[in-house]
Amino acid sequence: MKRTIVLFLTLCAALTLGAQDKGGISGDMLREIRKGYEGSAADKAIRNALNTAPINTLAANADNAAMIDTHFSDEVKTKGRTDQLSSGRCWLFTGLNVLRAKMIEKYDLGAFTFSQNYVFFYDQLEKANLFLQGIIDTRNLPDDDRQVDWLFSNPIGDGGQFTGVSNLIMKYGVVPSEAMPESYHANNTSQMRTQLALKLREDGIRLRQAARAGAREDRLQAMKVQQLREIYHILALCLGVPPEEFQWTRTDSKGNIVSTKTYTPKGFYEEFVGTDLENSYIMVMNDPCREYYKVYEIEYDRHVYDGENWVYLNLPVEEIKPLAIASIKDNTALYFSCDVGKFLNRQKGVADLRNFDYESLMGVSFGMDKKERVYTHASGSTHAMTLIAVDIKDGKPVKWMVENSWGATSGYQGNIIMTDEWFDEYMFRLVVEKKYVPSSLLKYLDQKPIRLPAWDPMFLPEE
Asked: How does strand 427-433 pair with strand 281-285?
């Protein structure tokens, strides 16, 4: 009996060792791996430096230390820079900044800004409703269904994209910043977001429990209304109560009073902007992982339940640049999003592939192309900004500039300058007015969109 047990244990050990030999790190393999670090004088010097300094500080390319030329052949006229502070509202700041530039130019205003807080209030209320209604819609699915799991994983957040801007403004209008100023929790959203998410998850559980107990649709809808009353209460405490009407005095760029009137938020938008945002713009995307000249739709990627999902036309970057140039040349800013953190020198406000030389520092190559980076989750759209300038030489763009929402002292006078090579690699989305898009591209919008799941990694909200 003992011999049998010994043989059994020996066999198990042999099988375990064999499994390690096939896929684990064996002793022989470890000896080979250790040869990757030779401990040369250069290795030791770099190791010593890395012991006291960040990687990107040591990887800064001295050959590219000089400030880039800041002249641009074509630039949209804008005034003032906004600051989203510790919030993920870049998509909202960007969308409002595009409209702000139009209004400033049309009415000869000074450094005017719309209230981000006003639109954000309704964004959070609508996202809460989107989640709760999604829970009602999926009430008959099992708890481990991926869509149910995604909803509870993403009950609410700060991030978003242009479809949210268009749906929210067309539904609720806008107000100037004086009518609903920023609050502490508008600028610092993390704690409010935590409380909202916790409450919504509890509400979602209660809705599913009621549905299992046999509650009918009308009962679930009544529960949702009561739950949204509590969400509204939290938002009002943290952000303030959005005005239903307000008085505003318009002054020109020299400070002269032009008029004083009382407005509703929708009336204010209709008088000073008036653009049908839901039908005047298209979103184009450069996603090399998916087929070009196809239209895609992202499920649940909207801010308003009865609004629109995010729909875009996927194009090669060479087809996107002429659209941006046409808009900028006509003094019209654009909603733009990218992977902002890659090769960005924050102090200079310059995004350039030559800013950092990680390969020389680490002694290894980083060779993935844009498609491979997206496919492996190494890159994706992380931040929205306002595209306002392009520098064209010999008929080709050499650099671009965006108005950022990190404050006037951030980067280059509140802006980020991007080389055209960087634009190719890390630009992802652009929202452009249809009048700047040739009919040869507009025709592709007649396609039925290919629907992608909400959890597709390429389509996380910009923050």
From this structure: antiparallel
The dihedral built from the CA positions of residue 245, 247, 250 and 255, taken in this order, carries a sign that is negative
CA distance 113 to 104: 9
Asked if residue 68 is part of any domain, the answer here is no
Q: What is the pLDDT along the chain (463 residues), one digit of tens a residue?
A: 544 544 454 455 444 444 455 889 999 999 999 999 999 999 999 999 999 999 999 999 999 989 999 999 999 988 778 878 778 888 898 899 899 988 999 999 988 999 999 999 999 999 999 999 999 999 999 999 999 999 999 999 998 889 999 999 999 999 999 999 999 999 999 999 999 999 999 999 999 999 999 999 999 999 999 999 999 999 999 999 999 999 999 999 999 999 999 999 999 999 999 999 989 999 999 999 999 999 999 888 889 999 888 899 999 999 999 999 999 999 999 999 999 999 999 999 999 999 999 999 999 999 999 999 999 999 999 999 999 999 999 999 999 999 988 988 889 999 999 999 999 999 999 999 999 999 999 999 999 999 998 888 666 666 6
CA–CA separation, 119 and 177 (whole Å): 11
Report yes or no on 217 lying in a domain: yes
As a dihedral over the C-alpha atoms of residue 372, residue 378, residue 383, residue 387, rounded to 10 degrees, the angle is: -30
pTM, whole model, 2 decimals? 0.88
Count the domains in the chain: 1
Active-site residues, by number, are: 90, 383, 404
Per the domain annotation, does 19 fall within a domain?
no
128: domain CATH number is 3.90.70.10
Note down the domain range covering 173.
Answer: 74-459
In a domain, 57, yes or no: no
